[in-house]
Amino acid sequence: MLRYALKRALSLTLSLIAASLVIFCVIEIIPGDPASYMLGLNAQEDTVAALRRELGLDASAPARYWGWVTGMLTGDFGTSYTYRTPVAELISARIWVSLPLALFALTLSTLIAFPAGLYAASKRASLGDTSVMGLTQLGIAIPNFWFAMLLVLAFAINLRWFSAGGFPGWDAGILAGLKALTLPAIALALPQASILTRVMRSSLLDTLDEDFIRTARAKGLSRRQALWKHALRNALIPVLTIIGLQFSFLLAGAIIIENVFFLPGLGRLAFQAITQRDLIVVESVVMILVFAVILVTFMVDLAYAWVDPRLRAGR
Amino acid sequence: MTLLHVENLSLSINDTPILNNVNFTINSGEILGLIGESGSGKSMTALSTIGLLPHGSSTSGAIILDGNDLVQLSEKDLCDIRGDDIGMVFQEPMTALNPVQTIGDQVAETLRIHTKTSRRDALKIARDTLNRVGLPADQFPLTRYPHELSGGQRQRVVIAMAIALRPKLLIADEPTTALDVTTQAQILDLLKSLVDEFDMGLMLITHDLGVVAGIADHVAIMRKGEIVEAGPTVQVFQELNHPYTRALFDASSHIPDRKTARADTPVLKLDNVTRDYPTPRRTLFGKPGYFRAVDGVSFTLNRGENLGLVGESGCGKSTLTRAILGLDPITSGTIEVHGQKITSQTTTARHIRRHMQVVFQDPYSSFNPRHKVARLVSEPFHLLDTPPADARKRIDAALAQVGLNASDADKYIHEFSGGQRQRIAIARALIIEPDLIILDEAVSALDVSIRAQILDLLADLSDRLDLSYLFISHDLSVVRAITDRVLIMKAGKIVEQGPTEEIFQNPTQLYTKQLIAAAPNIDLALEKREHAGV
Fold first, then answer.
1. A187 near A144, Cβ under 8 Å?
2. Interchain pair B97, A222: CB under 8 A
3. Could you give the C-alpha distances from B461 to B172, B353, B359, B403, B426, in angstroms and in order?
């Protein structure tokens, strides 16, 4: 088990290094001067030169890469060109919105998908199964920003249970923070839960057709016991894969929902940085996201090994 | 004492009749062999008894176990009976166990479901049961997972699960079909000794007459959902009253008429062929080890000769086949086809590959189901420099060679039966007129009567077209029936080779002797039982 974990950690560290190289090359080495790109077409020559100095573009590419990477390792992501504040501060403020939002949405989606998927699989081809499948179809088809606006209309404007947007900050208390994130989390969770339900159902159905389920039934387990004790754990691998992908997506892909609810999240920061051509922020945010994705992948890998002893053998 | 009494059992699934008025009885301590070809309804009889029929089944008649009519019982009552009064063992040991649970937990589960045993006590009984089925604690601790065991060992675990509560009736559905002959013999011995020890009834379902002849007290022969003949084993097999029983008996010991080998022109020549596979590194930067799958194999196959290659699973047969076909590189040695070397590293040139073709075990999965037969059969044309102008004529001719019609060329593969599919596979091999056909377990998945037909076809083709076969099989009786010479392979090495009859009559190596002794043989089994006075 430990060997498997170390092996996975090593291979993911290598991916992290590879990703940092790709990001660095795309932004800094590809033809075109980052400084003049950031300043736009009408920039003065001396302003560009000043920015080049500030960005340290005079140095060689390997030196700049080294500086960037070692800076990040010590928490120094550089200074944002547009905000004039350290990027680290910008990111840490946003990540405390995006990360809880992603976790909140993922928890909701898992809490909906597990029972729904189990129910649909255990009642294959019944009215209940067909209804669940129909609802998930709808959940995938509805654009989540539109669903978000419906939520705002119903729960913020009509019922006045939640505010329509904004984030009071965690200083205002955990409950207030969670309350502000509730509607966006629901909007984000709907399509994810629909996808996860379908994956859960089909994975369970595949597993229920396996020979070892028949063996379990021959031992005297009821259909239900066989589902819970033998099928569920075997069906988890594809479900874990999807949960991992969904978390990565939720962390960065919430831009539209963050905009609908005026949430200061990472997605919005990246979007603003791109429109303002603030390459320093863009490259740092992307790197943080890559790091998060790789961390999640690692956790999913560990979960695989927990579920399946064949992977623990380290093959 | 009558244990199980099946009376007028009829079954239909979604209005398709499956079983029709099946009647039989099993006494305690007795083995009933239920014999039939695929689709005869023998597995459905078993599933009816244990109450695990698929959706849409409707049953009539009675299945009386110890005074209870199982057909009338509710699902809940059936759950209480399954695993407790009736245990069941299935065909595929590789997939019959839950891959994410330890063998200890899986055996203990039978106890925990039916009795109020604590986990600790259940595991203790599981340990005893595993010991009893031949998996001692020092080599097979309860914490082992199924993937760490071989097929035969897994089947022992499945048997342990089925007998943990000492059921009155054990149902074994083709329990040894997926196993090697020596393992098969051990598992059959185990089942027999359990029946004697626990005074259980055993319903042994098989297609293999040899298996039944050795251990069953009574047999029932099934065909198309009906029992055509039943009675004491020795009597049924000696009298062969029913024409179907006779046909089965003849087909299973069928020997096709063949001319024996002739010219000494080598078609295939292997010299000291070795193939290593790397094994995973032990440490992060350590050297990977290697596993020698094929170890210094040398032999020559002459024109028109049928050469058998016999060995148990994992002995390197498949690796060797892939190497000869040029699908995998070899580590050292040489393979020559028609005097042209198959080089060890690069892909094999088409002009060499067109001399040989292959027929695999599973006639269905070796075809692309979306292509019509004409396209499937003509695939080897890719090996020619220019596709023949008379392609259609040659497709029709190849189909005619294997006893099919030209009109079959426009059908899809799912429209054919297993035997017909194997004929199509042979037609595909024949179409570019190769000198050598490798038959990799080519008749192993077929019913005995179909197998006899395919063997006749192969013998006829070899005689007429002067074809050479490399006939790979784990089934000794088939190899004996169709080959001139035989190679016995074990752990990557050829341990013995020579003319087939000579080897079968006077094996010199211990391993060959073991193989031949373990193979089910109807005549020998019956003779032995007559002597014993059973």
1. yes
2. no
3. 39, 20, 14, 11, 10
pLDDT of residue A315: 45
Longest CA–CA separation in chain A, Å: 83
Residue B31 Cα distances to A234, B25, B164, angstroms: 36, 10, 19
Residue B346 has pLDDT above 60, yes or no: no
In a mutational test of the A interface, the residue from B74, B76, B98, B166 whose CB has the highest number of chain A CBs within 10 Å is B98
Q: What does the angle CA B216 – CA B221 – CA B224 come to, to the nearest 5 degrees?
A: 150
**Tokens describing residue B14:** 């979604």
DSSP 8-state code for residue B147? G
Between the alpha carbon of residue A264 and those of residues A93, A98, A291, B327, B409, the distances in Å are 8, 8, 20, 58, 66
Tokens in use for B439? Answer: 């038959």
Q: Which of B83, B99, B280 sits opposite A234 (nearest CB)?
A: B99
Residues of A in contact with B75 (CB under 8 A): 222
Q: Domains of chain A (ranges plus CATH)?
A: 2-73 (no CATH), 89-312 (1.10.3720.10)
Q: Do A214 and B52 touch (CB under 8 A)?
A: yes
Its pTM stands at 0.84
When pLDDT is cut at 50, 70 and 90, the band that residue A130 belongs to is very high
Query: How many other β-carbons are positioned within 10 Å of the β-carbon of residue A305?
Result: 17
Give me the residues of A, 280-309, that contact B with CB < 8 A.
307-309
A113, B66, B192 from B107: Cα distances, Å:
32, 25, 20
In this structure, is the dihedral angle defined by the CA atoms of residues B141, B144, B147 and B152, taken in order, positive or negative? positive
Residue A49 has pLDDT above 50, yes or no: yes
In the numeric block, which tokens belong to residue B484?
Answer: 């001139």
Q: Indicate whether B347 pLDDT > 80.
A: no
User: What backbone torsions phi and psi does residue B105 show, to the nearest 5 degrees?
Assistant: -60, -35
- Measured CA angle at B382 (ends B377, B384), to 5 deg: 110
Extract the tokens encoding B232: 């004491």
| Alpha-carbon radius of gyration of chain B | 25
Q: What count of other Cβ atoms lies within 10 Å of the Cβ of residue B503? A: 24
Nearest-Å Rg of the Cα atoms of chain A is 24
Residue A115 pLDDT > 80: yes
The closest alpha carbon to A109, from A200, A206, A227, belongs to A200
Indicate the residue type of B381. Answer: F
B147: chain A residues, CB-CB within 8 Å = 309-310, 313
Tokens of A151: 């939520």
In one letter, which amino acid is B100? V
pLDDT: is B345 or A110 the higher one? Answer: A110
- The pLDDT confidence band at residue A116, using thresholds 50, 70 and 90, is very high
Euclidean distance between CA atoms A233 and A219, whole angstroms: 19
Is the Cβ–Cβ distance between B228 and B245 less than 8 Å? yes
Residue closest to A270 by CA, chosen among A184, A278, A262, A24: A278
Task: Please give the DSSP secondary-structure letter assigned to residue B86.
Answer: E
Q: Is A230 at the interface with chain B, CB within 8 A?
A: yes
Question: Among residues B243, B186, B247, B239, which one has the least CA distance to residue B215?
Answer: B186
Q: Tell me what the pLDDT averaged over chain A comes to.
A: 86
Q: Can you give the length of chain B in residues? A: 534
Q: Which of B53, B71, B49 is nearest to B62 (CA)?
A: B71
* Token duo for residue B127: 């340990």
Torsion angle of C-alpha atoms A175, A181, A187, A191, degrees rounded to 10? -90
> Would you say residue A267 has pLDDT above 80?
yes
For β-strands B226-232 and B86-89, DSSP reports them as: unpaired
Spatial contact of B424 and B402, defined as CB atoms under 8 Å apart: yes
Q: In this structure, are residues A257 and A180 in contact, taking their beta carbons and an 8 Å threshold?
A: no
Please list every residue in chain B whose beta carbon sits closer than 8 Å to the beta carbon of residue A314: 280
Task: Give me A314's structure tokens.
Answer: 């380290």
- Which residues on chain B are in Cβ contact (under 8 Å) with A216? 98, 109
